[in-house]
Amino acid sequence: MPPKTKFSKEKIIDTAFEIARVEGIDQITIRKVADKMGSSIAPIYVNFTDIEELKKAVLDKIQGIFQEMLRTPYSENPFLNIGIVSVKFAREFSVFFRDMVMKQNTYINEAQPDMSSILELMKQDAQLNGFTDEELTEIFFKMRVFQLGLSVMDVNGLLPEDYDEEKLIKVLQSAGGDIITAAHLRKNDKNTGSGA
Fold first, then answer.
1. Are 101 and 13 members of one domain?
2. What is the pTM of this model?
């Protein structure tokens, strides 16, 4: 009798990840993972107490992918790079994006960016010199609202057909510039006392 195949925790997570990538996180089941691996459910229960623990491991993997993408310099401009990563992630992992952003569920809490690392990236951008953490957080929030809207339109086919990735990046760059310019004007008005 041939020896039983052993399935590592990583193999189980990778298999669940592939199911979620195509079908969505809610579609991960112990039985589906076992079937896809050609296994019984036993190896899964050896490594995970329940399906929620496995889904959490998949969410951690997704978050790791996003963090790795954030470390990739798609642009020389750190603030623009954050937006590019978000658009690229939404395009490459559209099912995950829909699960975490467009559905009413608990996954959105898992998908929130780590603000301390976002602020550190923003502080590397010369255009954002002189802003406090609070001001940077507000700038990021406004840009995130725009970027999420753009990504939702993109993954749902609501943009003009000629909107390739290059055009999306130009739109992000333009909107980011507008948000930063407005923030500088507000800060200047506040400092000179001429603001409303």
1. no
2. 0.85
Cα–Cα distance between 79 and 128 in angstroms, integer? 9
- In the chain, the number of structural domains is 2
With residue 152 as reference, give the H or E element that holds it.
helix 133-155
pLDDT digits (tens, 9 = 90+) for 87-137: 999 999 999 999 888 887 776 666 677 889 899 999 999 999 999 999 999
Q: Kindly state the tokens that stand for 75.
A: 């642009």
* Distances, alpha carbon 147 to alpha carbons 28, 34, 60, 168, in Å: 28, 37, 23, 10
Largest CA distance in the chain: 85
Residue 46: name the closest of 2, 90, 4, 12 by CA. Answer: 12
